[in-house]
Each structure stands twice: as C-alpha cells, then as structure tokens.
Amino acid sequence: MQIPAVSIADYISKIPEERQEGFKKLFDTIHHNLPKGFEENPSYGMVGWAVPLKTYPAGYHCAVNTPLPFINLASQKNFIALYHMGLYSTPELLDWFVTEYPKHSKKKLDMGKSCVRFKKVEDIPFELIAELSKKMTVEDWISIYESHYKK
Q: Tens digit of pLDDT for each residue in 58-70?
C-alpha cells in the first residue's frame, strides 16, 4: 500500500490517526540516531532515508538518477513496516538484530528479508531500532551496496 505524499508531514497526516503518534515516534527514533549523511525524503509511497546523489552520484541502479535508498517506513493495511536494506544485505547485522529482538520485545519477530512488521504501535522496540539505526554509516552502506548490487 503506497501513500502518495509530497513531504514527511503530508505522509504522516494520511495514515490512520491511531498510528500517527507511534509512526512519528519511530520516524524520530531513526532520524535522531542515523549517522550523518543520510537524507530523509518521501519515496516509493513511503518515507525514508537515502544516500543523496551529491554524496553518491551513481545513485540507485534500479531507478536512474535517484538517491540510494537505505531505510523506509510505511503504514501498511495491518501494520507499520520498517524496511532496512542493511538487514537484507549484511548477515552479521541481521544475526545481531534477530538475537537482540527478544531482549527488547515480548512479541515474536515478524520479519521478511528487509521488512520488520509491527502490528501494534505499543510493540515497537524503540531502543532496539535506535541501536540498529546507529550501526551503519553512509560509507558503510555505499561499500556494501557496491559489493553486492551494483553491476
């Protein structure tokens, strides 16, 4: 489910009211903990952070002349989704996250390849997401991206 939006505030205003406060807190948690260099923007019908073209002019190989995506948040029909490309592409980071998750939440981890799903706002482990957000710099992500995905 994509929500067309021209800004982060616009996106948040369009999600169900009962999710807005938790979504904003999750957004702020990531925003305040990401290393410098990532830029926030609405993208792909979500909100997210990417490596800007001024830092990485080659951009994203799947969408010419677009920033290199890193983390996105989306309000889906039945959950809030956190998409973290570092979890998808770095087995060590994924292992760390899976091991740490039960220390921060009583709920079972609901996860796909890069997507962590939160059905209830009160079940979001904000401290863990803050730690996760700090784990990868722009330089780290570019290096991983180039070694795995760039052709």
A: 999 888 899 999 9
